[in-house]
Amino acid sequence: VAQAFVENPHLSIRNAAKQHENTRTSVHRILKLIKFHPYKVHLVQELNEVDPNR
Fold first, then answer.
1. Residue 4 belongs to what domain range?
2. CA distances from 2 to 13, 17, 28, 46 (A)
3. What's the structural domain count of the chain?
4. Are 32 and 48 in contact (CB under 8 A)?
5. Which superkingdom, per the lineage (predicted)?
6. Is 0.70 surpassed by the pTM of this model?
7. 14 in a domain, yes or no?
């Protein structure tokens, strides 16, 4: 299961559970054991020289 997420980090827990004939809870526990954390990439604006300091 862990290797599937290394190869495809966009894989959902639900789809990984289906592929490996496992429960979603088990897949989530495996990811927690290998210290994978769910997150979504958020695009932000880059800072320019003219931007005020904060």
1. 1-34
2. 11, 11, 10, 33
3. 1
4. no
5. Eukaryota
6. no
7. yes
